């Protein structure tokens, strides 16, 4: 079964969002949406999400799921906005509770911030299945970049989030709290054990030197043959030392502080104050 996949690329955060559609009907799922956010002014914008909405409406699609591969640290999720406009259930990995616990502390959240994942409509675990029309989706727990990362396999398409990137860029960083390069290596081996012709849709593309257009679709066979970090049978030891050394030099993503506070709440802003105003925090010297 081959779902039709429409990709939306966000230049500001190098994120790819997907609409995955049942070719036999009108059901679809949205994977990893983006709410635009200008940190300097504190302003949100729905331009990216509106493009997805326009596509869904023009094609007459019915949104059944709004899926997150993980709590993104580089962009805000538009899941609640999409849900209000289009319907669908918001799903994420059950280890979101670990992420909520970690960042609940980092952001000194009060007791009104629930750390049980209840902000989401569905918490998935390894081996769970879900339906998008007649298409069956399967959940793989693929931790490493974060402890809650999932890969959604729908027909011959795998939405791997931030695990593997395009073969010439390699893999995702593993240095956020709860991340682990060893876990990422193990997760990647499981993704690479999917059938060779499986289409892999990545969560980001950063245009490595030597390439002049963004790409987001590859296959298991291509990744096995040529992924610069894990292809051609790279060993776990080599991967772990390469990944950890590289991560030690990476700066934090520009939007990590607002992204975590919003995304750990399933894309909702923190509760407004008595005047109805909403604030995000900047914890000093915490990350
Ligand atoms: Fe990420």
TrEMBL record:
Protein's UniProt keywords contain Hydrolase: yes
Domain named Metallo-beta-lactamase: residues: 14-204
Matches recorded under SMART domains: Lactamase_B
Coiled-coil region(s): none
EC number per UniProt: 3.-.-.-
GO function term, MF aspect, one: hydrolase activity
Keywords from the named record: Hydrolase, Metal-binding
GO biological process: glutathione metabolic process; hydrogen sulfide metabolic process
Domain of life: Bacteria
Keyword Metal-binding belongs to the record: yes
InterPro entries xrefs: Metallo-B-lactamas (IPR001279), Mito_Persulfide_Diox (IPR051682), POD-like_MBL-fold (IPR044528), RibonucZ/Hydroxyglut_hydro (IPR036866)
Enzyme class: hydrolase
Transmembrane segments: none
One Pfam family per UniProt: Lactamase_B
PANTHER family: PERSULFIDE DIOXYGENASE ETHE1, PERSULFIDE DIOXYGENASE ETHE1, MITOCHONDRIAL
Protein's recorded name: Putative metallo-hydrolase
Organism the protein comes from: Roseisalinus antarcticus
């Amino acid at each position: 079964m081959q779902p039709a996949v429409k990709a939306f690329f966000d230049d500001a955060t190098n994120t790819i969002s997907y609409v995955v559609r049942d070719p036999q009907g009108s059901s679809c799922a949205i994977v990893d949406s983006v709410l635009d956010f200008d940190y300097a002014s504190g302003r949100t914008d729905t331009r990216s999400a509106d493009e997805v909405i326009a596509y869904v409406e023009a094609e007459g699609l019915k949104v059944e799921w709004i899926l997150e591969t993980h709590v993104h640290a580089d962009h805000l999720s538009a899941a609640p906005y999409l849900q209000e406009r289009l319907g669908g259930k918001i799903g994420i990995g059950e280890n979101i509770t670990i992420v909520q616990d970690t960042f609940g502390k980092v952001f000194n959240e009060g007791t009104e911030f629930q750390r049980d994942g209840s902000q989401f409509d569905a918490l998935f675990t390894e081996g769970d299945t879900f339906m998008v029309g007649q298409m069956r989706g399967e959940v793989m727990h693929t931790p490493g970049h974060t402890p809650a990362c999932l890969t959604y396999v729908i027909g011959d398409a795998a939405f791997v989030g931030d695990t593997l990137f395009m073969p010439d860029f390699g893999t995702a960083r593993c240095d956020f709290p709860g991340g682990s390069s060893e876990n990422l290596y193990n997760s990647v081996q499981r993704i690479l054990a999917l059938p060779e012709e499986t289409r892999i849709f990545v969560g980001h593309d950063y245009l490595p030197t030597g390439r002049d257009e963004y790409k987001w679709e590859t296959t298991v066979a291509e990744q096995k043959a040529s992924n610069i970090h894990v292809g051609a049978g790279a060993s776990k030891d080599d991967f772990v030392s390469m990944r950890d050394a590289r991560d030690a030099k990476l700066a934090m993503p520009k939007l990590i502080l607002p992204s975590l506070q919003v995304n750990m709440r399933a894309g909702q802003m923190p509760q407004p104050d008595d005047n109805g105003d909403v604030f995000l925090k900047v914890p000093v010297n915490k990350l």
